[in-house]
């Protein structure tokens, strides 16, 4: 039985070669560079060395898509060169928990003091789908993206983007079998069985059911139930609008297998589209497993849900506000504010904020240039390098990215 997921992935790779009529090869090239200045209390600060932290990345994603009859398939191969000075490269991602085999490797990996250079590849998607009248069956490496939240999605149990992520074009694929049923034009029921990493004794396969349906003309609701890496999760969401104001409420109840803890992760948000291309979004976050003081905050980074990004933030509560505006037909600006109160006896000691300003210029229909500035305030790391606030340890950084599709 342990060979079955690997066989399914191989099938997803081989079947398209003879089963499709139309094949399309496209790609995306991304060039990114970032510089940050670390001060005392910031991650990466070293009083004996240069405290300017830099990273750069050149990545190419090749996308091969095919379709014919009631079949379709996709292959995404991503190659990248990454270089970092003063900071660590990579880290753990939520998709690592749901990939049977890595299907990735490094052609070059060199570390010299504070400098690291890595060149490698990842097979990010390899999926094969069969479509019937009201059913779709997919097998292989594919994205699963649920939830209605703008910044955080409690129902996105297989992983979600962080509110500050700059690259959200492609959600990483997970190794899964996905069955979708459409009982009506305005409802769907999705069943997912995701495979755990091969040889991992502490991580179980995951399964979930997700129902989404429309209520009337302007409202939708969703229900979720599943066992995710051994934890029981049930959840629901409702979204609608009133007098031009969009609103949503989304929640998930957790029962953790290892500790026996129970907790609720919920969000509530509103959106409003102002005149002249201006958008305002506000969302409140509350996670029962999050920290309410500095003592519990420092222990969380080693927890599995936090380390892999399935628990989005360290603190229990957070406020997110975004303001987006079309400055010119080719230039769009956005501002993001994240505010985290820890609830200390001295309120000022626990509070921290993160500000992110993005400017995106459309170079052509298929290319754009992004400039992003990120600034955080709050208490930094303590002498043991443990966080004392949600954002206080993040250094001020400036990022420039060019992206083009072909």
What does this 3D model show about the protein?
A hairpin with a 2-residue loop joins strand 17 (352-364) and strand 18 (367-377). The protein has one domain (4-405): Porin. It starts with a helix and ends with a strand. The protein contains five helices and 19 strands. The chain has an 18-stranded antiparallel β-barrel. The protein is mostly beta strands. Residues 16-20 have low confidence and may be disordered. It is globular, with a radius of gyration of 22 Å. The relative contact order is 0.13.
**What is the architecture at the second tier of CATH?**
Beta Barrel
| CATH top level class name | Mainly Beta
- Could you give a short account of the major beta sheet? 18 strands, antiparallel, barrel
Instruction: Catalogue the unreliable spans.
Output: 16-20
CATH topology: Porin
Count of extended strands: 19
What is the SS-derived class? mainly beta
- What is the tally of helical segments? 5
Mean model confidence by pLDDT: 91
Helix content: under 10%
Count of folded domains = 1
**Overall spatial form:** globular
Order of helices and strands: HHEEEEEEEEEEEEEEHHEEHEEE
Q: Proportion of β residues? A: over 45%
Distance between the termini: 41 Å
CATH superfamily: Porin
Radius of gyration (Å): 22 Å
């Amino acid at each position: 039985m342990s060979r079955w997921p690997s066989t399914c992935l191989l099938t997803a790779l081989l079947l398209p070669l003879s089963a499709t009529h139309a094949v399309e090869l496209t790609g995306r090239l991304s060039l990114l560079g970032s510089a940050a200045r670390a001060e005392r209390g910031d991650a990466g600060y070293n009083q004996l060395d240069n405290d300017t932290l830099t990273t750069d990345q050149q990545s190419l994603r090749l996308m091969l898509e095919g379709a014919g009859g009631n079949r379709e398939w996709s292959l995404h191969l991503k190659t990248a060169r990454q270089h970092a000075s003063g900071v660590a490269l990579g880290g753990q991602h939520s998709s690592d928990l749901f990939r049977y085999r890595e299907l990735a490797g490094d052609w070059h990996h060199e570390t010299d003091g504070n400098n690291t250079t890595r060149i490698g590849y990842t097979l990010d998607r390899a999926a094969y789908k069969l479509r019937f009248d009201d059913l779709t069956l997919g097998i292989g490496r594919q994205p699963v993206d649920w939830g209605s939240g703008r910044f955080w999605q409690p129902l996105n149990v297989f992983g979600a983007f962080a509110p500050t992520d700059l690259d959200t074009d492609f959600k990483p694929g997970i190794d899964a079998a996905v069955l979708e049923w459409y009982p009506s034009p305005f409802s769907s029921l999705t069943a997912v069985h995701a495979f755990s990493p091969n040889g991992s004794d502490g991580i179980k396969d995951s399964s979930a059911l997700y129902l989404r349906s429309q209520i009337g003309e302007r409202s939708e609701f969703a229900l979720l139930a599943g066992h995710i890496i051994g934890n029981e999760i049930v959840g629901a969401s409702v979204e609608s609008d009133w007098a031009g104001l969009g609103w949503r409420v989304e929640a998930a109840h957790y029962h953790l297998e290892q500790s026996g803890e129970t907790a609720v992760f919920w969000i509530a948000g509103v959106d409003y589209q102002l005149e002249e291309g201006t958008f305002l979004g506000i969302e409140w976050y509350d996670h029962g497993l999050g920290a309410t003081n500095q003592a519990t905050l420092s222990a969380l980074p080693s927890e599995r849900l936090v380390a892999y990004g399935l628990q989005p933030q360290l603190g229990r509560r957070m406020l997110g506000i975004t303001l987006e505006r079309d400055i010119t037909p080719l230039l769009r600006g956005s501002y993001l504010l994240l505010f985290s109160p820890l609830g200390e006896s001295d309120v000022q000691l626990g509070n921290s904020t993160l500000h992110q300003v993005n400017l995106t210029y459309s170079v052509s229909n298929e290319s754009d240039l992004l400039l992003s500035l990120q600034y955080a305030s709050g208490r930094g790391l303590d002498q043991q390098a443990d966080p004392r606030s949600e954002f206080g340890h993040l250094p001020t950084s400036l990022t420039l990215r060019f992206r083009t599709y072909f």
